[in-house]
Amino acid sequence: MTHVSVIIPTYNRSLFLKRTLEQVLRQSYPSFEVIVVDQTEKHPPEITKFLASIRTRIRYIQTETACGTRAKNLGMNIARGEVILCLDDDVDLPGEFISMHMRNYRSGGVSAVAGRIISSRSQGRREPKRCGVVTWYGHVISNFYATRRRNVTHGGGGNLSFLRKQALRCGGFDEQFAGSQLREETDFCLRYLEQGAGGMVFEPEAVAFHHAAPFGGCRVSDQAADPLTYANELYFWLKHCDVRLVPYFVLNLFVRFFILRGRFGAAGYWWTMPRKLLALVQGIRMGMDLYRKNRRGAKPARRNG
């Protein structure tokens, strides 16, 4: 029986964490451990009491540094399982959730599983044509609410399993992604698959309902006004795409955050635009610096689409 290490990074989501842990500990899969990497400064008394009551059933790490990628790497370094299963701290899970992940590893050729992620926003949506794809020109297509099993090249970081040895071999999660850490899981998946020891499948039966808590975690109230949004996007793109297409990518960022979102009311009022344009310029500079300092000459990872 393959042992699984469930890693749950958490930050300022006490009540959601309690609910998630209760459901993880009720899983039917017979061989797993739970690693909680807690970055919360102080929990309410009832949550502190709850965590103390289950301390013998989980492995608990407390750290002062609030960084989701670092938290996952910390958990992965101490994990005892052959398979790592990363979860968000604000999800609801069925009792067979871990089993639905693990059944995919029985057949050869599978080294990672991206689970289905649904939320109140995904209800009523049509089945997407594409899911878990990164195109050659750097367009990231998620659509993890899909219902059809398929091969993919990335998954959502809050419902993702993979082989521990292969993950350590590719260097784990890149801790240079900051703020909302946008694209960190996609970057990890592409580098992970470069190891070549099996592909990744999307498993719709391994479903997690994501509450998308409006606070805590790495939530950012306004991505378009946050320089780190653009820095993460550009850093990811430079690592995995043709650098000669940088002008196209910058134009793409502008269209996505200032035209398309503005059309549907998500970019905010017109008087906020100068601040957001400044954030775009700052983010582009930050992303270029990250790439030059940390990933110079990085080999592009493979992708489908």
Report what the structure shows:
The protein has 305 residues and is α/β, with parallel strands linked by helices. It is 35% helix and 19% strand. The strands form two sheets. Strands 1, 2, 3, 4, 5, 6, 9, 10 and 11 form a nine-stranded mixed beta sheet that branches. A two-stranded antiparallel sheet has the order 7-8. α6 (184-193) packs parallel to α7 (227-240) and α7 (227-240) packs across α8.
Summarize the structure.
The chain has 305 residues and is α/β, with parallel strands linked by helices. The protein is 35% helix and 19% strand. It contains 9 helices and 11 strands.
Residues in helix, %: 25-40%
- The SSE string, one letter per element, is EHEHEHEEHEEEEEHHEHHH
Average pLDDT reading: 88
Largest sheet: 9 strands, mixed
**Structural class, please?**
alpha/beta
| Radius of gyration based on Cα positions | 19 Å
- Which blocks of ≥5 consecutive residues have pLDDT under 50? 263-267, 297-305
Beta-strand percent range:
15-25%
The dominant shape is globular
Q: Say how many strands there are.
A: 11
What's the topology here?
Elements: E1 4-10, H1 14-24, E2 32-38, H2 45-53, E3 59-62, H3 68-78, E4 83-87, E5 91-92, H4 97-102, E6 110-118, E7 133-134, E8 140-141, E9 150-152, E10 159-163, H5 164-169, H6 184-193, E11 199-210, H7 227-240, H8 246-263, H9 273-294
Parallel strand pairs: 1-2, 1-4, 2-3, 6-11
Antiparallel strand pairs: 4-10, 5-11, 6-10, 7-8, 9-11
